Amino acid sequence: MTVGYGFNATLTARPGLGDRLVDLLLTGLDEGSPGASEHCAVYLVARSASRPEVVHVTEGWSSEEDHHRIFAGEAAQAMVAKIAGLLAEEPEYTDYVPVGGKAGF
């Protein structure tokens, strides 16, 4: 798949809710969730080593249009609403286009 759109989101959970935020974000890979879409090539969840409330999500999509279409769906909107309830502040986004690399877990 060619990745035409991507971003990194930095999310800061309310104190003590970092684990819940990570767990919720990882459900984004479950069947029917945004990260399981055929249009999503990259969906990585990472945690700050020094600030456990800070979580980073890296996503790569076939196109910006595909990303917006998937996130307009019911499953994605329900996930976004749950995430919002755990946050201490507005997420920060950096847009980019992933061009290669490796992730093995």
Structure summary:
The chain starts with a strand and ends in a 9-residue tail after the last strand. Helix content is 27%, strand content 28%.
Report on this structure.
- With 105 residues, the chain is of the alpha+beta class.
- The chain has three helices and four strands.
- It has a four-stranded antiparallel β-sheet with strand order 2-3-1-4.
- The longest helix has 11 residues.
- It is globular and about 40 Å long.
- It starts with a strand and ends in a 9-residue tail after the last strand.
Set down the secondary structure blueprint.
Layout: E1 5-12, H1 18-26, E2 40-47, E3 54-61, H2 64-71, H3 74-84, E4 92-96
Record the strand order, biggest sheet: 2-3-1-4
First and last CA, distance: 20 Å
The chain-level mean pLDDT equals 93
User: How many individual helices?
Assistant: 3
Strand content is 25-35%
Topology as a string of helices (H) and strands (E): EHEEHHE
Q: Uncertain segments of ≥5 residues (pLDDT<50)?
A: none
Based on secondary structure, the structural category is alpha+beta
Find the count of extended strands (DSSP E, 2+ residues): 4
- Provide the gyration radius in Å: 13 Å
Overall helicity? 25-40%
Largest sheet: 4 strands, antiparallel
Outline type: globular
Question: What labels describe this entry?
Answer:
3 helices, 4 strands, four-stranded antiparallel sheet, 105 residues, alpha+beta
